[in-house]
């Protein structure tokens, strides 16, 4: 393929994936409201877009609440969107974009399916916007680090003490948990011996990394929740406080962009978790039918989203001192210790000394 064809292909794939994620964000909000309603024994959205079933007396409804995300979008577009006096207008308007853009950029290196051919187009070594990037993990870490700027700058540019405090708390929380996240990401890199996400997926063909490294998967998931500011780590915009936090001065569609960023990051980080620990697009018969790769990774993303919603419905929120203490005193030491032990075991396995050590341990405990 010529460079021009590669660029056109990347643009087309990028548009398709971006459109799918933006649509998925809208219906992730509906999924959350429906699941929370079911878990908490209450009624979720069930009016907008419903089709009554008259042969059952109208009691049963088909697609109840299906158009709720569209109604929410229309409401946000037409809500009053005032700009407070004395804000830094350039940064105030730029901050929501800085929150949304990284959530989409993360998806550039995610592998969605194995290599296949569709007419004149050949997708190798796997289906992605930017396939074969040998520093894909480094790209993800760099892009996710940008997300904190949107939150911090939103608080600073709003010229409000409440917003500034929310931004400061945001930077402290996200930096704290990024350390554990960055260290634990090294585990799948070492096990696959590559930073290419496609190679990491291929390395999980015998067995998913979550079964080999369940502790690393758990630490990654907890740190990802903290990066998302999802419950029980949603101290940046806790509803029970007098002020909402960094976004208190935002309204209308600018507030909607922060809302959009959260749910798009849920999808993106679920895709990363599925790629690192759940085998990505891997699954039965995917070699014979490459389109199954899309099905498998989407199912894994939906399962991860369900767990995030379940956690929000179940666990109480941390106090801020508990949140910081957990990040620095529990999660970070566990991540570092896990990294050291894994590195030692990999080196011992490569040098052929791991077998005798295991035999010695078995002999010791068998008496």
Q: What kind of oligomer do you see? A: single chain
Rounded average pLDDT: 86
Q: What is the overall number of helices?
A: 13
Which ranges are low-confidence, i.e. pLDDT below 50, for 5 or more consecutive residues?
Answer: none
Computed Rg: 23 Å
Number of strands: 4
Spatially, the strands of the biggest sheet line up as 1-2
Helix content: 55-70%
**Which range does the strand content fall in?**
under 5%
Sheet having the most strands: 2 strands, antiparallel
Q: Give the termini distance in whole angstroms.
A: 64 Å
Overall geometry: globular
Taken in chain order, the helices and strands follow as HEEHHEEHHHHHHHHHH
Topology:
Layout: H1 3-39, E1 51-52, E2 61-62, H2 68-78, H3 89-105, E3 113-118, E4 121-127, H4 136-157, H5 161-184, H6 186-192, H7 197-202, H8 209-212, H9 214-228, H10 252-277, H11 292-314, H12 320-351, H13 354-366
Antiparallel strand pairs: 1-2, 3-4
Helix pairs in contact: 1-10, 1-11, 2-10, 3-4, 3-10, 4-5, 5-9, 5-12, 6-12, 9-10, 9-12, 10-11
